[in-house]
Write the structure tokens for this entry.
Amino acid sequence: MSDLVLTERVDNVLVATLNRPEARNALSPELIDDLSDALREADADPGVRAVVLTGAGTVFCAGMDLKAFAKGGGRFDGLVWFFRDGIGTPVIAALNGSALGGGFEMVLACDLVVAAEDARLGIAEVKRGLFAAGGGTTLADRVPLAVALEMGLTGDPVTAAQAERAGLVNRAVPADRVREEALALAGRIAANGPLGVAMTKKLMRERRWAEPDEVLSVFRSKDAAEGARAFAERRTPVWNAS
């Protein structure tokens, strides 16, 4: 993997950093491929119980690299799988700065969002004769329809404070606290039973009740037994995701 995506382990949390600050972390085909690999590897690693996705510099992600797109080189669909389906591991977007276009669609694929107070979020594709084909048109699943339509049809961004009021951002904090807040949130998730966390995310994302076999797969697991024992013994559970 190149240095376009930097990865770091903090206990059971993987921090993945988009590393093209000179290009406002725009999504080039190469960065897309590297990020796709990093996300798949994190999801396959049982030791990673949460992912924090952030950017280098002062912008989270300015969206698709339009200069590379205009040249017609490379493919830009390498993250469609993540935008569409996400991963089983909880992902927190740590917006060190603005998230626009494809960068905003990446935020929609994440589960929780911590944003710098000066960050702006938006899908500006219509301003370039395009539309938000990477999932931006699902925005109404996350915010009221009128808010989604205004953002999508005007292409105008909203502030982090507006996004927080709309329920799109979990926390809007000073820029120098974004990483700290995101890691703290990720740590609280990672401390919980991984099977229960994964099933909770799956069912909430799919907006449905659990099927009987899904209930049994968690409630009869070793982790469920460990959670009960640890509660009775007044100690911290030791999970093994089984």
Residues 143 and 165 are 10 Å apart (CA to CA). The first helix runs from residue 29 to 44. The chain is about 40% helix and 15% strand. The mean pLDDT is 94.
